[in-house]
Design a protein that fits this description.
Blueprint lengths: L2 E7 L2 E7 L4 E8 L2 H11 L4 E2 L4 H14 L18 H11 L7 E2 H7 L6 H9 L12 E2 L13 H12 L17 H4 L3
Parallel strand pairs: 1-4, 5-6
Antiparallel strand pairs: 1-2, 2-3
Helix pairs in contact: 4-5
Length: 190
């Protein structure tokens, strides 16, 4: 049975879903718990909210610390990698090895896979990542220090904010937008 839990981070409400052998999905911090809940229910219609097992509680603590800017390692968090195509699994394995505060390009991952022409395929695989943060797709950038795409809510601004929290050297803060929200968390999603 697939279960999930929601938790509050310093930048919004996140969630983790798990099965028998590891995480099956993650939800990036969002403005409200309802948004995260609806996301899980949309992806897993039979999912139920549950009490997280110890490894999920540990993952939550680490994700919360990461959102506070601590250089936390999430590579030991078990994921059900067999749920994704083999190519995607290889991409995610490489991305998981990138520590907080560092980045790798789509092209560099493609080269590690044996063909620099696979860069677009790497981007497509990362766009399907069911475990954002745990599989840190936000740490994968385009050539020349450009951020590249990001399919999560908030798009590239979310990616830049996550990289800024982690202290990635190349990142310039996202351009300021007119204030719409009263809280710093809501700003993440504008």
């Amino acid at each position: 049975m697939t279960q999930y839990t929601l938790f509050d981070t310093s930048i919004g409400w996140a969630g983790l879903a798990w099965g028998e052998r590891g995480l099956v999905a993650a939800h990036l911090p969002d403005a409200t718990p309802e948004i995260a809940r609806k996301s899980f229910l949309r992806r897993f219609p039979e999912i139920v909210e549950g009490e997280p097992p110890p490894y999920v509680r540990e993952a939550i603590a680490r994700i919360c610390a990461l959102m506070e800017g601590e250089p936390v390692d999430l590579t030991g968090v078990p994921i059900e990698i067999e749920r994704v195509p083999e190519f995607n699994a290889k991409v995610y394995e490489i991305a998981r090895a990138v520590p907080p505060g560092e980045t790798i390009t789509y092209g560099e991952i493609a080269q590690k896979l044996g063909d620099k022409l696979l860069a677009r395929d790497v981007g497509a695989a990362l766009g399907q990542n069911p475990w954002p943060i745990v599989v840190p797709c936000h740490r994968v950038t385009a050539a020349g220090g450009k951020p590249g795409g990001f399919s999560a809510r908030g798009g590239v601004n979310t990616k830049l904010k996550l990289l800024t929290i982690e202290g990635a050297a190349f990142v310039q803060p996202a351009p300021a937008k007119p204030a719409k929200a009263a809280s710093p968390q809501a700003d993440l999603f504008s």
